[in-house]
Amino acid sequence: MKNQAELKQLKAIADFLPDFKDGKGLARLDQFVQTAYANNWVRSDINWTEWQQTPEAEKLRDDPIALAHSSRHDLACLLTTLIRQERFCEGSLESDFASGLLTGILQRAASILDEIAREHETENA
Q1: Which of 15, 46, 90, 91 gives a 20 to 30 Å CA spacing to 4?
Q2: How far is the C-alpha of 72 from the C-alpha of 10, rounded, in Å?
Q3: Where are the domains of the chain?
C-alpha cells in the first residue's frame, strides 16, 4: 500500500471536491491554497515558469482526458504552476476554477485515492 504521507496528501485536496463540484469552490479558494501549500502540492523543486511552457503542461491544462490519467507528480506540477501564477496574475486561480481545471485536478486526486484503495483490496483478497 502507498505510504500514509501520499494518501494524506491526496486526501487533503480531494476533500475539497464536493464544494468545487457544487460551485462553492470560489468561497474556499484561499483555504484550498493554504491546504495545497501545507500538504506539499506547491513545491519549490518544480520550475513552474519553464514547466508551464511545455507540451505536457499544455496538454494537462487543455485536455480533460490527459488530466484524468495524470500522475501525482503531474498534479503537483499543475498546482504549483497555477498557485504560483496567481501571485503574479491576480484572479488567474479564479479563472482556473471557472474553467473547471481545478475541479478536474481534484477529481483526479480522488480517482488516484480510489485506485489505491482498489489495489489495496486486491492485495488483501
Answers
A1: 46
A2: 8
A3: 1-14+55-125
Cα(124)–Cα(116) distance, integer angstroms:
12
The residue count of the chain comes to: 125
Average pLDDT value over all residues in the chain: 94
Assess contact for 57 and 41: CB atoms under 8 A.
no
- Supply the Cα-derived Rg of the chain in whole angstroms: 14
Those residues whose C-beta lies under 8 Å from the C-beta of residue 68, and which sit 6 or more positions away, are: 104, 107, 108, 111
Q: Which amino acid is at 19?
A: D
Cβ contacts of 41 within 8 Å, gap of 6 or more: 9, 12, 13, 75, 76, 79, 80, 83
pLDDT at 2: 61
Residues 42, 84: Cα–Cα separation, whole Å: 8
Which whole-number Å values give the CA distances from 75 to 40, 60, 71, 102, 122, in the listed order? 11, 9, 6, 10, 25
User: Within its chain, how far is the Cα of 94 from the centroid?
Assistant: 15
